[in-house]
Specification:
alpha+beta; 5-stranded mixed beta sheet; 359 residues; elongated
Length: 359
């Protein structure tokens, strides 16, 4: 395959493949053959060919055979012309960001990122792919960026159906980087028939503004969806109220989510203990645990008005307090997010102001 690039009639860069080169060579051969007398006068063709080490006829037949072989592998080529290339960023929902690029007569290329997930690239086709195969991914330079060299990015598997190409990071991010640099990703996958593969060019024309909007959307994505943060649990050591380091990252994500999702109206914090100490002591201990989590979330920026605590001592065990493992799971603060006003957890009060007393 010739490693040079030119412009097609659709004004997007395509590779000059072996088929095109052989077509030109064959046309030249046929022209010479049909105009032999113009080159060699009346000299018999046979005598001239016999004087050469390689038969002219052999070379001619070889070119014809190679041309027929290349006809079977000639790719259908798709891509948006400069004057019709479009990119659009979908409006942000804080849960999903999308960047779309229509590809005339083929379908569209889409970059997307959901809250709490990595970037995804997909190529959607109007026609379903009937079998799996290999996708060759490369990047080429348009005519106005001739100083850049083409680069092969790798191979991946194609899918059947209307979404032949689907990949996530790091390839998805690399494709975005190449588009931002003004280059054209080029994806070649098996075709809708056995004879002709499909070559899809993704234009970087008019990419910049839509990409800026997409980046803004991604920056404002929630760290996850509501279901992921609706219920969480922080466990404590025996007779302790400090938050262990392994739970701090989870609390950081909860705080980030609550601050971005204005539909979360309340964060309920319910403190619990095991049954080792007296009931009154355990009630106050569960309150201190709930308040410890409350202070941590307030330090991360959540207003106190959105944080509600309740404390239940040993009265609501998750498991029977008959083994060390079960007691560990009962020493907890349960964090619940509420999106709508409803019945709030009651806040029990400890009436005694005296120092806590154990058994």
């Amino acid at each position: 395959m010739v490693e040079e690039y030119g412009q097609s009639a659709n004004n997007w860069p395509v590779r000059a493949n072996g088929y095109q080169v052989l077509m030109i060579m064959t046309d030249i051969t046929v022209f010479i053959c049909c105009n032999w007398n113009d080159y060699y006068g009346t000299m018999p063709l046979r005598d001239t060919l016999m004087s050469r080490s390689i038969s002219f006829y052999s070379r001619f037949l070889l070119l014809i055979c190679l041309q027929l072989i290349c006809l079977k592998t000639h790719a259908y080529q798709f891509g948006a012309r400069e004057d019709v290339s479009q990119w659009r960023a979908q409006p942000s929902t804080q849960q999903l960001c999308e960047l779309h690029h229509p590809i005339p007569e083929y379908g569209e290329a889409v970059f997307s990122q959901r809250s709490g997930q990595s970037l995804v690239f997909e190529l959607n086709s109007f026609r379903p792919l009937q079998r799996q195969g290999t996708v060759d991914v490369s990047v080429v330079a348009p005519a106005w960026l001739h100083q850049f060299q083409s680069q092969h990015l790798g191979l991946m598997s194609s899918q059947t159906g209307l979404q032949p190409v689907l990949t996530d990071d790091p390839l998805a991010s690399q494709l975005l980087d190449e588009l931002q640099a003004g280059l054209f990703p080029l994806l070649r996958h098996i075709g809708w028939s056995d004879q002709h593969p499909v070559e899809v060019s993704i234009s970087s024309v008019n990419f910049a503004d839509a990409y800026a909007a997409f980046q803004t959307c991604v920056a404002n994505l929630l760290p996850g969806d509501f279901a992921e943060f609706e219920h969480s649990t922080v466990l404590f050591d025996t007779d302790k109220t400090f938050i262990k380091p392994q739970y701090q990252q989870r609390l950081n994500l909860i705080a980030a989510y609550v601050l971005k999702d204005s539909s979360v109206q309340e964060v309920l914090l319910a403190g619990h203990t095991d049954s080792i100490w007296k009931s009154e002591y355990n009630t106050d201990l569960s309150k201190q645990r709930a308040e410890s989590v409350k202070r941590y979330l307030m330090d991360k920026g959540i207003p106190e008005a959105r944080l509600q605590i309740s404390f239940h001592g040993e009265s609501k065990p998750l498991l029977p307090n008959n083994t060390p493992a079960n007691r560990q799971k009962n020493r907890r603060v349960v964090i619940s997010l509420k999106k709508e006003d409803g019945e709030k957890a009651g806040i029990e009060k400890v009436t005694s102001s005296s120092p806590l007393s154990k058994k």
